[in-house]
């Protein structure tokens, strides 16, 4: 940096000192090029100071060279402006060139100065722009100050500054860029030395030619071309610098072909311009040629290196490779690697020159036709004469426009795999025969838990066919409470070892269950790695059912009172449960009246006051008067009396026994429900308290809705004013805004619109929830509504790369409702699909009638909704975790509003979604011709899966997609 600044001072002084006598401008001005190069190449924090320093140094140098103070200052300013403008342009051009040419295989050497022709083009352009700017300032200064002919000075300064820039900038770049590794042999060094000596001798001879030397003045140019063709850019740059300095100094001291007389200033001006024009021509002749040759040498070197790598890869590849040449009818082998030779079990010279059809059993004409058509040919073939072999052949696509064109082929030996496949097929057939003849259930499950096979016994036992079972997860056959544990166990296979035997229920197609005793084991590959889970089951349903019945009866005998009474109302059977419940042993109770079991107060409540003199037998008759054989017994709560005098509330069932041989006429089964009834009473009291709390919460909710409505109304009024005033400021009604104010005004308007939208959403939702919203009730054609809404949704697609499609039925789809609110349902659903779908995705909107309902479906391929969050999908302010992670804007009110509107119209919403797998939302509204079915209110309809319809429906039509989608829309009918 300091050296460059001193060089600007020195060249400024020397250029003025070497100027023709009486001339206000110098014949050559290298200081301009040095200043431009320093501005372009210096670090950014230093480059901003270079024009100012250039002004000072050029002014000082011109003053030291003999210029007046005002001329020196003007010349310094001209050079500073030239350095600032041209240096900035050159820096930006270099940055863009480096950004576009970062590929190391483009054939350029980034260590060489001006390694690309594009950089030379920008150098020439900046040289002209900078020279024109500096010359304009100098010419204007001389004209206004009366120091000389301004037009003549303009011509000389343009030429001298352009020549100085074209010479100094490449030299500066050559110094600043690191030198790459030395290239060339000793012979190349000798050639360089000889060329330099010859160029120096030529320049010496040219300098002594004198005026009118004619063609001898062009003698150095062929030598520069020689250097450009043979020696590289760096050598050419320094030779051009030497030529420019030599011929400029020679012209000043009166030597060489461009000299004039001291008493003829006009000729001196003209010859000075000719000298610099000569320098410019030398630069433009030699430098582009040198850059082109350097690029050519780099590309050639890379091409040779790539060919060596490819040949080595061909020879050392672990895959069999053939190089094939087209002979017009077939493909002939011209090269082969060792792997292919070993695969063919032949010698190398026995393979070369043979046609592909002579080596393999394949359709030669089809192979050649496919490859020539631009498609690769692949197939499994056998080696000619060896039918038991299998080789995978892949012939690459190529242009076979003339005989001799080459393509390549890859060979893979598939013989071991083919033999193993045949063996596996035989073993598979044997296993299938065993499975089909077995009487037990057999299921084959892969390591992911998916059923891959089931035997006929499984089909008969479960009621599903094998095709219906294959592809399902095995845990889907288990009851819901067992699926999770089994699924986790399968996910950890084979680390988690399933028990070798266990019992479990399986679900049948008819909804029943079968109890099976399971045996599990793994099928393994030759390495011992588990590949399949084999599950064998024996049906033990009937056996376990009988055992369970006996077990339950035994358990009931301990906790349930079973009392038998004969026709006369005396106890004939008293089980252990009755003894525990009443505190009386069976021996004491048998033979006593059955009515003694009941509390006297219960008898009064049931029959009223006892009849005077009524016997226990008569009381029993009244108790069992309504019991008839074959009539289902009805349990009722009766109060029984314990032996200690306490009472129990017992759920009692009385039934008639029709078999008199049992000695029992009435069978009484009782279960102590004293604590249960007490708990129920407590629960009822708690429920009453909860009902009161709910009423209070509802009152609070109404108050909250009123508050939200009031705040939304109050918020909307000032925000509307903000929007209006912002629009007045933006459109210049008050005052034309400055360009730097436009983004702020746009941000105010945009965020105010968002606040208005939020207030509108809150007001709409509050009205729908409170029932105060007034909904129109008229005939609405959803098809027409969708057609009109398509144009209104067009701004949503602007700037997005989405494929959209609209499908409608040919006829009207009429519902009874409010068109504005139904339009809002469509807008909210489609805007959600667009917002949560990345560019390159797809949004589909369809409408059809089905089962007395209008079905509006919006599908997208967006980010989806995690399954665990879908239960809160229609709650206010809900936003999925994926949307929050991606910072997608939204309030979370859109789907809540849609849900409320659909519920108000007697419809329902069904959703199918998965994380990062898209979302399908279907809105089902009752058609006007069909009444709404009970239980289909949208508020009560649970979110469930929507199954996409396949194919097209007759009578449907497709709307064209908006033109701003940026992609071709799906225009299928239906």
UniProtKB/TrEMBL annotation:
Residues 427-497, 546-604 form the PAS domain. It comes from Nocardioides lentus. The keyword Zinc does not apply. This is Sensor-like histidine kinase SenX3. It is an enzyme of class 2 (transferase). InterPro entries: BphY/WalK/GraS-like, HATPase_C_sf, HATPase_dom, His_kinase_dom, HisK_dim/P_dom, HisK_dim/P_sf, MASE1, PAC. The keyword Transmembrane helix applies. It comes from the Bacteria.
